[in-house]
Each structure stands twice: as C-alpha cells, then as structure tokens.
Amino acid sequence: MLTVEPAARKRASGRRIALALAGGGPLGAFYQLGCLHALAECTDGLNLSELAGYVGVSSGAIIAASLANGITTAEMVRLFFVDDDAGPYPLAPGTLMRPAFEEYLERAARIPALIAQVMKGLLRDPQQQNWAAVLSPLLRAIPTGVFDNRPFEQYLRQILSAKGRSNDFRKLRTLLRIVATDLNTGTEVRFGEKGYDHVPISEAIRASTALPGLYTPVRFAGHTYVDGALLRTVHASLVLDNGADLVISVNPLVTFDASRSRRRQPHDLADDGLTVVLSQTFRALIQSRMQVGMATYRNRYPHSDRLLFEPDRDDDVMFFTNVFRYVERRRLANHAYQQTRRDLLAHADALTPLLQRHGVSLRFDRLTDAARTVDACVTSVPCGTVTTTELNDTLGRLSHWIAAR
Fold first, then answer.
1. β-bridge pairing 175-182 and 187-191
2. What is the Cα–Cα distance from 338 to 315, expressed in whole angstroms?
C-alpha cells in the first residue's frame, strides 16, 4: 500500500531526499529491505545510499545506518540472504536470536530470596486470601526478555567498521538519527544528535531494537534503553526539520483485516492464540500513533512531499509469518519487493510529476518485468563491493538510455 502526499506549497527547487524507517522486529527489517530494493531498482536518479538524511527506529535503524554508510540495498541482500557460511559477514540465526542466558541466570538467582519473602508474608498472615498479592514478589524472577541482542551489535560493529564506513555518527557524510526510549524516564532519545553522537552507531541500534519482551533492555552510561517505537513509530519529523523536500517512509506493521484475507477464510483472530492477539494489539497501537503523527505533517511541513510504503491491510503473509523463522527472510523480502513494484506501477500517474520535481523518474521496463526478484542480487552483485554495484547500476541505466534512443 502506497500513500502519496504531495506538498501543499512547492519550493522552486527541492532535491533534498530523506528516508524515515519504522520498526517491526526481524520481520520488519526484511520487509523494508525488499521494499527499498524495489524502489532503488525501479527508479532513475534515486541513490538510496546517498540521501540528505536518514532516521531509523528499531529494525528500521539497521537499514538506515547501513544506507548512511554507503551500503546499497543490493549489498544488504547479499549480507542477509546468502548462505550462513558464505561471504565475509555471515549472518547466522544465532546472531539475531541468542537466548539471554545471563538474564536467565540472574533472575534465577533471585528465586530463593523471593520465595523467602513470600513465606514471610504467609507467616505474618496465614489467613491471607489475596494470593495475587502474596505471590507478586515472584514476578521479579521473570526474565525481561527472551533474547540478547549483543551478538547482533557485534555483527553490526564489524560491518560498520570496515574500510570506507564508520561506526561513528560524527564521521558520517550525512545526517543519521537512531531513536530509542529511556526506560526509566519514558522519554525519547535521539542518538546522533549533540550529546548522544558519541555513542557508537551499532550500540545505538542495539538500544533501539530492544523490543520489550523479545530482547532484554540495554544498559550503558547509566541509562537503560528499549525499543524506540514505544513513543512514536516513524519519526519523519527529524529529517523534515532538517529541510527534507521529499521524505520516503516505510512502515512494516499495520493492523490486519481478517475479513479481507487473500488466502484464508474469514475467521476470529482470537482462535489463533495469544501471540496473534498480541500481534494485532501491538500493530493497532503502533499504527494509530503513526497516523496521528503523519496527519500533522501537511500543515507543519507544507513544502515537503511524502511517500509512505506499508503492507496492505489484507496481507496475511506479513501478518502470519513467524518472526522466529529465519528461513522465511528471503520469501518475505521478495514479497515486499513484488508488492512495492505493483504499488509504484499502480500510482505511476501521481508519482511521475512528484518524483520529477526531485530529479527522479520511474523505470517502467523494470516495473513491468515479471521475472525480476530479490534473489537476482545474490547472484549478480558481488558482496561488499560498492564500486561494482555502482558500475552495474550505471551500465543498466546506459542500456536503458540506448534502448530509449
């Protein structure tokens, strides 16, 4: 689903393009990558790794930081979708989903003292009828998260510290903001802004992706951080305040309309269990906050064009795919890739003049090529070679120009 919001008042010349990416866990990251790769392939004049600014929340921070470091979407496909033992930076399932053993042990060590506290309460009042109050101390033994995302931070640190890249906000050639939430104050933290720009980018991503319940909170410098999506979703205002003329946003999480499901008979989502109920609830909260924020942009930023890419409301692939099934990553990215190409083609009449104002045009030869897939990147683009990627793109544009002539 693509939402096109032209500027209310156009500037004489505006070609500052920025990217704002929302969260959504591993599922969201792979969806965004597929969406952005389709956008990169099917346009001319739009280099997603050389934009005026980037803001990322949660899994969107991973993609935003990679692009800000000059890593193209094609290279990210190679990094994330090649076999686990291939390439210089293999991404194994354990990197994303290592159990939080230290958290488990620390919480388990509290159990004897907590049981003793419960027993003291019972001895003081043997007739106690409020068992919820009696047993409440045991809740402190429950781990704060299932997984530990430190291995992924180390993986990102390795990638962002490679030659030609930087793990330091202050050394980037473009603006990058990564948003997290301070758990103890409930306030938004914008890593990359003054006062928070000394934090390594990989560490900021670790804080922003600490989805409560899934990953343990992240502690450093006397603060405890969790997922940045707790307060807002897209945070596009951070690049709009920086003067962006066109902001491209991707939000992977929308509420699912079971009555319009494409592949399943209409049914009650409650029948699918607790995880599905929680998923729909979380999506509803995220989407409502995003809609409130986006609704204010037209008046606050009348000179800026905005594009918002999201899954369709009846997209059961996005809703029912298990985020823990690492093997689904390629299928999910390709699903987003194909949907984005369909959306671009369906909105071509509105997009063409809007994009032209920013020096961008649609590649209809690629939009209408039914054989194109995300998987083509794995075999056609050598991993870790920005120059090769740019050369391949330049040759493609030259071929397109010659054919047009």
1. antiparallel
2. 13
Instruction: List the single range of 199-203, 265-269, 299-303 with lowest mean pLDDT.
Output: 265-269
318-327 as b/e, with b when 16 or more CB fall inside 10 Å? Answer: bbebebeebe
Residue where the block lists tokens 């054919």: 403
> What is the per-residue pLDDT across 358-372, written as a single tens digit (0 to 9) for each?
889 999 999 998 888
Measure the CA–CA gap between 250 and 339, rounded to whole angstroms: 13
Q: Report CA dihedral (204, 207, 208, 212) to the nearest 10 degrees.
A: 180
- As a three-state string, the secondary structure of the chain is CEEEECCCCCCCCCCCEEEEECCCHHHHHHHHHHHHHHHHHCEECCCCCCCCEEEEECHHHHHHHHHHCCCCHHHHHHHHHCCCCCCCCCCCHHHHCEECHHHHHHHHHHHHHHHHHHHHHHHHCCCCCCHHHHHHHHHHHCCCEEEECHHHHHHHHHHHCCCCCCCCHHHCCCEEEEEEEECCCCEEEEECECCCCCCCHHHHHHHHCCCCEEECCEEECCEEEEEHHHCCCCCCHHHHCCCCCEEEEECCCCCCCHHHCCCCCCCCHHHHCHHHHHHHHHHHHHHHHHHHHHHHHHHHCCCCEEEEECCCCCCHHHHHCCCCCHHHHHHHHHHHHHHHHHHHHHCHHHHHHHHHCCCCEECHHHHCCCCCCCCHHHHHCCCCCHHHHHHHHHHHHHHHHHHHC
Two tokens at 91?
């991404």
What pTM does this model have? 0.82
Sheet with 98-99, edge to edge strand ranges: 98-99, 145-148, 213-215
C-alpha span between 172 and 168 (Å, rounded)? 7
**Amino acid found at 365:** D
Phi and psi, residue 358, nearest 5°: -110, 15
For 116, half-sphere exposure in the C-beta direction (CA atoms, 13 angstrom radius) is 5
Q: How far apart are CA 58 and CA 25, in angstroms?
A: 7
Six-digit token pair at 179? 């948003």
- Highest mean predicted confidence (pLDDT) among 111-125, 257-271, 344-358: 344-358
The pLDDT score that the predictor gives to residue 277 is 84
